[in-house]
Amino acid sequence: MRVHGAWLTDPGVQAVLAMLAEGGHQALIVGGAVRNALLGHDVSDIDIATDARPERVQQLAKAANIRAVPTGIEHGTVTLVVAAVGHEVTTFRRDVETFGRHAVVAFADNIVDDAARRDFTMNALYVDAAGNVIDPLGEGLADLAAGRVRFVGHPDDRILEDYLRILRFFRFTAWFGAPDAGVDADALAACAEHALGVEGLSRERVGAEMRKLLAAPNPAPAVTAMQTAGVLAHLLPGADARSLAPLVHFEAGRVPDWRRRLAVLGGKDVAEALRLARADARALDVLVTASRDDAPAAVLGYQFGADLGASALLARAALTGYAPSDGWQAELARGAGATFPLKAADLMAAVSGAALGARLKELEARWIASDFALTRAELLA
Ligand code: ATP
Ligand code: MG
Fold first, then answer.
1. How far is Cα 199 from Cα 380, in angstroms, rounded to an integer?
2. Which residues in the chain show pLDDT less than 50?
3. What is the rounded CA–CA span in Å between residue 223 and residue 265?
């Protein structure tokens, strides 16, 4: 089987692969790039695997005049910079020992060992510089085609090596699991058994995983499984996946937005639990509040803009079970386009200081309540 694409013929990628091959080494693209290319999804980041040890990679790079940055040398990763673009090259590895939290790795000389330490069979696929696909474990291609997200090896052992794999399991199930394949039962049982382990993960990593999971076209089945397995409760206490499927229904194919999904999921102190960026936390706050009250579409459009307003209305529909009222998009746009006809300067002759702000707010509230109808003259009067 062969794959192709601009990601593979990219001159920088080809230069790195050629440099390693000319040095007498195996050089392969591995993981997400191969998986996504086989599925026809976008390929964003490229990981390169090689049997060359990190020092050897650096030595070859020096000889080829390629800048080498030891970005993760203890894991065997060297970043090679070609035309200002970094390419991560990681030496084949195998898991040798575990302490219940992090896999301890050693370098390996062969691709089968390297494939065996990867998380899921569909992530243990490789491609050479010409696009030939290699499936060292002999399971990845079939699982990928069938939409089966399965651990490499025994799920219990693999999760005990690294609890992040619990989250990765649900994320990849959301993205690449076939709806009729269901969620892998052995994996799910192991996730349930070791659910408590996710509490030891950093909030940043949990946040990154949850954002990616919730950006899937339809995350509802995977997040529901996550809840059933007792994992969700450890990550987001109080969250409830029940309204996610209705949300996906009401979204009707519009661009997935993880914040909208997160607002529907709910839970206590979500922004804090996931270490959200300030702007995301603010948007989430708007979505949570607006989806749980009953402000009309036009008002949401005025207050939060058409995009965030639409997300709030869709989230509200999911939570209540009622579709937004007819013409809601036009109403949102009307509100988003409305401009309050007064400025602070208009009131300065009459009031000042803190009273000025309060007065302006009050007049704005009246103007909104009039459905944006009161004119400047009416407001001033
Ligand atoms: P994407 O980049 O689209 O999120 P990916 O599969 O490329 O998906 P990465 O996190 O970039 O995921 O990791 C690259 C590869 O490294 C994976 O495909 C997998 O083979 C391996 N890998 C990553 N994280 C783990 C892990 N925690 N345990 C085992 N293998 C892992
Ligand atoms: Mg990747």
1. 57
2. none
3. 9
Domain ranges in the chain are 1-146, 153-235, 238-338, 341-380
For residue 44, how far is its CA from the centre of ligand 2 (angstroms)? 7
Indicate whether residue 285 lines ligand 1 (CB < 6 A).
no
Does the beta carbon of 61 sit less than 6 angstroms from any atom of ligand 1? Answer: no
Task: Please report, for residues 244, 266, 283, 368, the alpha-carbon distance to residue 309 in angstroms, rounded to integers and kept in the order given.
Answer: 18, 18, 10, 15
| pLDDT tens, position by position, 207-224 | 999 999 999 999 999 999
Task: State whether the beta carbon of 139 lies less than 6 angstroms from ligand 1.
Answer: no
What is the CATH topology of the domain spanning 1-146?
Beta Polymerase; domain 2 (3.30.460)
Tell me the pLDDT tens digit for each residue of 157-189. Answer: 999 999 999 999 999 999 999 999 889 999 999
Is the CB of 165 inside a 6 Å radius of any atom of ligand 1?
yes
Name the fold adopted by 153-235: cca-adding enzyme, domain 2 (1.10.3090)
This prediction's pTM? 0.93
Which residues, listed in sequence order, are joined to residue 94 by a DSSP beta bridge? Answer: 106
Q: Is the dihedral of CA 355, 356, 357, 362 positive or negative?
A: positive
Distance (Å) from CA 72 to ligand 1 centroid: 15
- Does any ligand 1 atom lie closer than 6 A to the CB of residue 22? no
Closest CA to 124 of 134, 212, 85: 134
- H or E element, residue 85: strand 85-91
Nearest CA to ligand 1 atom 7: 32
What six digits make up the tokens of 122?
């569909």
Ligand 2 mean position to 308 CA, how many Å?
Answer: 29
